Amino acid sequence: MAKGPLEFFKFGIYLAIPALMVYAVAGNPDNLERVIKSRSYVVYPPEGPRPPTADEMAEIMKKQKDSRK
């Protein structure tokens, strides 16, 4: 069975490539920052108007009651 050395080689490559990529990207903070900035993983929509606070809601309700009378 001559498959033994080939399987060890393939397994070594399987482990080495991710390890080398992590070292290349995360080993240098400048590379890591460049990779993070070049990809927008989460894009948040622009922030809308804030809902009124409890005090503002009480004032709005009071104005609505007064306008009904």
Automatic annotation (TrEMBL):
The chain crosses the membrane at residues 12-29. GO terms for biological process: mitochondrial respiratory chain complex IV assembly. Keywords: Membrane, Transmembrane, Transmembrane helix. InterPro entries: Pet100. Signal peptide: none annotated. It comes from the Eukaryota. Residues 47-69 are annotated as: Disordered. Residues 59-69 have a biased composition (Basic and acidic residues). GO terms for cellular component: mitochondrion. This is Uncharacterized protein. It comes from Apatococcus lobatus.
